Amino acid sequence: MEKIVLITGATSGFGKSAAKLFAKNGYNIIITGRRNDRLVALENKLIDLYDIRVFLLCFDVRDQQATTEAIASLPENWKKIDVLVNNAGLASGLSKIQDGDFDDWNKMIDTNIKGLLNVSRNIMPLMIARKKGHIINIGSTAGKEVYLNGNVYCATKHAVDAISKSMRIDLLEHGIKVTQICPGAAETEFSEVRFHGDKTKAKEVYKGFQPMSSSDVASVIYYVTTLPEHLCINDLVLTSLAQANSYYIDRK
Ligand code: NDP
Ligand code: 8X3
Predict the structure, then answer these.
(1) Exposed e or buried b for every residue in 39-67, given b needs 16+ CB within 10 A?
(2) Residue 63 has pLDDT above 80, yes or no
(3) Which numbered ligand comes closest to the C-alpha of 240?
(4) Could you tell me the CA-to-CA distances from 157 to 19, 109, 110, 152, 221 in Å, in that order?
(5) Cβ(5) – ligand 1 distance below 6 Å
(6) What is the pTM of this model?
(7) Phi and psi angles of residue 186, each rounded to the nearest 5 degrees, phi first
């Protein structure tokens, strides 16, 4: 039986690695993101490597109408989504809350909270109709503890934590699994985006310790989908061995 996964933010980092791993394991994949050139390149690569089908949806999760239209545009057979990976997200800026930039705040709130809701709101009814599905929300250690200068990013990931718990309760009677995965530091384009393109500053974040890679995180995203039907990992915090939590990293 063919399965379908929809992954938001598949143009980079966790989302891209997860797309490759689900494809390797025979899933048909709906890849989404704003950068169409990257989506096309990934589609070509996946089709070349694996005997699966790929559907590409290019939209901004912050745009409620575009999100609804994109998901509505899926052919009926592609609407049978088994797994939704709510991964698209970002940190923008790292500064004291009193110095915060309104544009950065809006970007994070609109993407990490409202974007996740925009996508989920359109997919949950499809899963409810089929009485099955698995929603995997990518939270963060930043959604478990707040840290200096993390303020609004941490708040958005705390919101993902609350939304994940709420989804699990509200969807309980429909047999839909909800898993939150909360990674710690992983070297992707995340820090480059946080520091508005400053690659040197981004590199500093991972100096002196081994962070996770995007494929480390992808392997856990895929793993939670491999459990028996009656089992659900609700909440999972994942760091590299060198990291204990948001505050403690063993840098040599
Ligand atoms: P990347 O920057 O490498 O990837 C982020 C992905 O999100 C990209 O594919 C990007 O696609 C997509 N995205 C961002 N904004 C939008 C938008 N408005 N609409 C649609 N897609 C969007 O970062 P990561 O892979 O590291 O991050 C993935 C998730 O993991 C995020 O939610 C992040 O907060 C979380 N996370 C990351 C950690 C880390 O240390 N790296 C740790 C814990 C959590 P495009 O730009 O093409 O739209
Ligand atoms: C990303 C990890 O530590 O930068 O969510 O908040 S951290």
Answers:
(1) beebbeebeeebebbbbebbbbbbbbeeb
(2) yes
(3) 1
(4) 22, 9, 12, 9, 17
(5) no
(6) 0.99
(7) -135, 135
CA of 11 to the centre of ligand 1 (A): 9
Question: What CATH fold (topology level) applies to the domain 4-238?
Answer: Rossmann fold (3.40.50)
Q: Is any atom of ligand 1 closer than 6 Å to the C-beta of 19? A: no
- Nearest-atom number in ligand 1 for the CA of 186 is 40
Look at residue 1 and tell me whether its pLDDT is greater than 80. no
pLDDT in tens, 69-99: 999 999 999 999 999 999 999 999 999 999 9
Segment 198-240, tens digit of pLDDT: 999 999 999 999 999 999 999 999 999 999 999 999 999 999 9
Instruction: Give me the catalytic one of 50, 153, 223, 247.
Output: 153
Provide the residue ranges of all domains of the chain, joining segments of one domain with +. Answer: 4-238
In the reported structure, the alpha carbon of residue 231 is separated from the centroid of ligand 1 by a whole-number distance in angstroms of 28
Given ligand 2 and candidates 108, 145, 153, 216, which is best to mutate, with the most ligand atoms within 8 Å of its CB?
Answer: 153
Q: How many CB atoms lie within 10 A of CB 71?
A: 22
Q: Quick check: 20 pLDDT over 90?
A: yes
**Rounded mean pLDDT of 39-56?**
98
In terms of Cα–Cα distance, which of 166, 25, 143 is closest to 83?
A: 25
CA of 140 to the centre of ligand 2 (A): 6
